[in-house]
């Protein structure tokens, strides 16, 4: 039984690592978003200037469209002026043509303002260019490292899953079934717990001296009366073997 307990502990250790890696791999979109968010925060100032430049360009396009429309209106007014047959029509056409010309002049001033704003922002962008290039390079390096780490973790996960299969098939069937039953039912999936200081290290329930001595002997499978985990004992000189045990 001692060898089988050791296999159970190894299985538990493998399962714990599988779960940890699965959790890390599941969090990939979130971790990637955090890297990108950090970049966005640092690039914020630069982004604001870019927005200013793009805004000026858009506004200029809009103003130029409005100028073209107003020119058409002015032409209409001028034609109306030529074909006017009475004083009233004439006066109205004059007013309309004047208003259109005045409006065009105002719009042209605004176009100049937007051109200046565009050029100013463009100049600032050029000044920040090396900084932002460096930031982008940093972002790319971080994302690349992250992808490499992710690949390594995926490989580790595959290796652990194969290892898990091997360990599970080596165990006697009833024992493997028992382990699976406990681990699926229990929170955190930890089916094996160290008995330490006369208590179960997973649920902290005290173990009766008789139970504790059975666990110590390791000749049969003993489970915790409280949490149903399979108990094992690590002799004091090898406390590090308890790594299969994690908090529940
Ligand atoms: Zn327990």
Biggest β-sheet strands, sense, barrel: 3 strands, mixed
Strand share of the residues?
under 5%
Shape: rod-shaped
Task: Please tell me the total number of domains.
Answer: 2
- What is the number of strand segments? 3
Distance between the termini: 25 Å
Integer average pLDDT: 92
CATH architecture of the largest domain: Orthogonal Bundle
**Class by alpha and beta content:** mainly alpha
CATH overall fold name of the largest domain: Helix Hairpins
- Provide the list of bound ligands, each named once: zinc ion
The gyration radius over C-alpha positions equals 38 Å
Could you state the order of secondary-structure elements as H and E?
HHHHHEEHE
Strand order of the largest sheet: 2-1-3
Q: So what's the CATH class of the largest domain?
A: Mainly Alpha
Query: What is the overall number of helices?
Result: 6
Brief overview:
Helix content is 75%, strand content 4%. With 248 residues, the protein is mainly alpha-helical. The radius of gyration is 38 Å and the shape is rod-shaped.
